[in-house]
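#structure-requests
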Amino acid sequence: MLEGIHLTLMIGPVIAVPVPQSVLDSLTSVTVTTNSGPRTPSVFELAFTLSNKSPLQTLFLVAGGTPVPLVRVILMLTVNGTPDVLIDGLMTDHQITPGSDTGFSTLTIKGQDLTAAMDYQDFSGFPFPAMPAEARVALLLAKYAMFGIVPMVIPSIMLDVPNPLEIIPRQKGTDLKYINELADLVGYEFYINSGPAPGVNVAYWGPRVTLGVPQPALNVNMDAHTNVEKLDLSYTSDQKSMPIVWIQEPITKATIPIPIPDFNPLSPPLGLIEPIPTRFEPVEGTAKLNAIQALLIGLAKQALTADAVTARGSLDVVRYGRVLKARQLVGVRGVGMAFDGLYYVKSVTHKIKKGEYKQDFVLTRNGLISTVPAVPA
């Protein structure tokens, strides 16, 4: 590892423990991708160079072949004394590749975050009488407390409590599939955020939040202050659309069209100039629903086309001075008035090798020209 950067690897069934130093010494590369978005779990890949006679090969392969793969992996980095849990997840795949040197092979282990544990068992048909979507999600997440998962469920701006005399909602599919479907209906995201301590995770079900203290700025074309190796920006103006939901008036049975504006109090715009909607898209099937359900579906459709500016790049963590985190804000400087300002970090890929730690990242926001006059350096 680089000076000032220390890697901690923990592996075990359900409860992970630190691995011996011999295992850590055989670790040659680490790749962790933290994603934010619908149905995009965070994933990891570990590569070990081991002797063909090493018992670690048998240990990992046997553990990965159990009927219920609950072999847990926790990766934590300490950068300049500040610990950061990169991922807490489960092994899902193992592969051995013979090396060019006689007697040695490369063992590659892949996995994803703890959402994998929610996708094993189908609980279709489980009833949720008189429970809004928020309560259903909280109840589903409670059963995974043994993994240190703490629910953070944000109520929708329009609460919809189904009348049990009319309908009783029932689960469809696995817990993960059902939670994601409930998030899609209201334009929310669902993901598990590892940390702040090893073995502790926060399961977030709510809107994308573009509030909070931004991370130090990514600097481009600023001589000695440049801390980004690469940054490409793009602006897409023809994907913006405005959904239109149809609501049926209960007395006259007349259908009323309602356009859904781009508004979310928890996710204020980061750009001043947004693209104009190029098309209006009627949302089918909403006339059969009540007004709240129809509006929630319209908000969910509108959220899919909110991002117009995308930035993709890479940086060296040593030069940046800290770990860039996904699902938070970050400033960008040095690319001009149109693209400077705050962005939401949509995804980050950590690439760690001996003597090297780099990150690839994807940033997004709604439009051009920053809404703030300056960003933190």
